[in-house]
Amino acid sequence: MITSLRTRLRDWMSGNSALVALLALFIFFGITSGTFLLPNNIFNIFRQMSVVAVLGIGMTLVILIGGIDLSVSSALFMSAGLSALLLRDGTSAPVAIGVGLLAATMVGVINGLLIEGVGISPVIATLGTLIGGRGLALVLMNNAQIRVEDPFFEFIAITRTPGIEALNIPGLPLIAIIVFALYLIAALLMRRTIYGRMVYAIGGNSTAARLSGVPVRSVKMLTYIQCSFSAGIAGLLIAASTGVISPNLGSGAEFFTIAAVVLGGTRLSGGIGRVERTLIGALILFMTLNWMTIRRVPTEWQQAATGLLVLAAIIIDRLAQRSREAS
User: Fold this and answer.
1) What is the 8-class DSSP label of residue 91?
2) Rg of the chain, C-alpha, whole Å
3) Whole-number pLDDT of residue 27
4) Which DSSP category does 205 fall into?
5) Which residue of 121, 130, 183, 254 has the smallest Cβ count within 10 Å?
6) Do the beta carbons of residue 156 and residue 97 sit within 8 Å?
7) For the chain, what is the largest distance between any 2 Cα atoms, rounded to a whole number of angstroms?
8) How far apart, in whole angstroms, are the C-alpha atoms of residue 155 and residue 163?
9) What mean pLDDT comes out for the span 229-249?
10) CA–CA gap between residue 117 and residue 217 (Å, rounded)
11) E-only strand ranges, 69-152
């Protein structure tokens, strides 16, 4: 019986390694920092991770099909920049939001056409749209900062749920609630729809999926499109939370996003992973960065630690995979 329990515990920990790591780090950071567990700091972590978490939804699906998308930060920037530009010129919020999302989505359309239509490598194709998309947005914005002044965006930025005054616990930011809602939708999409099953089939074995009648090219194109669409949503959230669109907004976000996906346990080779675990990966990443900031760790060391954290996650995943194959 004890052996059986140990086996079950080991299997559970192996299948939920990201969650185990999250809990372990949460406890460690709480013990070693007097301010880490303060409610305001916890909610600040939720706010800081929101953009990368939303980017991670689309990135997870792209990686599950065996691809990669380096252009998410340019799609984010186009959505935020064009929305802010239109709002400044007097356009209504719904129209500005729609145009921003459409511009971001077009990045995904171009990615899909280049990768599945022309046959260009995902790394090269999305690197091109990363550079080209950001450059085009900078031209439209005249390479200048734009303030986001709109009641709807201000509402998203400042709204919180009711807090608990007796315990000095503030309300949860609306942005965090939006992130959780998006992950719930994405998880249901992957578990309960034909599209979700096709994504896993393609990532597991693209040739076998094609022979089974799965429209591989169409599914891959749709996946790149939804990745850019989710990046567009992230752009709107960052526009609301910062209130200012600067020329370097979102720069480098693609690398933090890939880090969150990997830390969540999604395999870079595709076919294995769960979108909701990317949220755990984002929490691990931004909890670590927050703790290092509290401990006054220099920025360059924070970047180095982030890279080492991702490498450690990949190595642990590979070792666990070999252990499962051996048994």
Assistant:
1) -
2) 20
3) 92
4) -
5) 121
6) no
7) 70
8) 17
9) 91
10) 8
11) 146-147
DSSP codes joined into one string, 10-59: HHHHHHTHHHHHHHHHHHHHHHH-SSTTSHHHHHHHHHHHHHHHHHHHHH
CA 82/CA 102 separation, integer angstroms: 10
Q: How many CB atoms lie within 10 A of CB 37?
A: 13
With beta carbons less than 8 A apart as the criterion, state whether 260 and 56 touch: yes
**Domains of the chain by residue range:** 49-159+167-250
| The token pair that represents 52 in the structure block | 């990368």
The CA distance from 274 to 267, in Å, is: 10
CB atoms within 10 A of CB 163: 14
Which tokens hold the place of 111? 């990615």
**What DSSP string describes 272-309?**
---HHHHHHHHHHHHHHHHHHHHTT--HHHHHHHHHHH
Query: In this structure, what token pair is assigned to residue 121?
Result: 């490598």
Give Cα 156 to chain centroid, integer Å.
19
pLDDT for the residue 169: 66
For residue 169, the SS3 value is: strand
pLDDT of 301 reads: 86
Contact 155, 241 (CB under 8 A): no
Is residue 60 within 8 A of residue 275, CB to CB? The reply is yes
Give me the pLDDT at residue 157, please.
84
Residue 123 burial (CB count, 10 A): 13
Residues 289-293 have a mean pLDDT of 92
Instruction: Look at residue 37 and tell me whether its pLDDT is greater than 90.
Output: no
Do the beta carbons of residue 98 and residue 82 sit within 8 Å?
Answer: no
The residue count of the chain comes to 327
**What is the residue-wise DSSP string for 53-80?**
HHHHHHHHHHHHTT---TTHHHHHHHHH
pLDDT of 33 reads 86
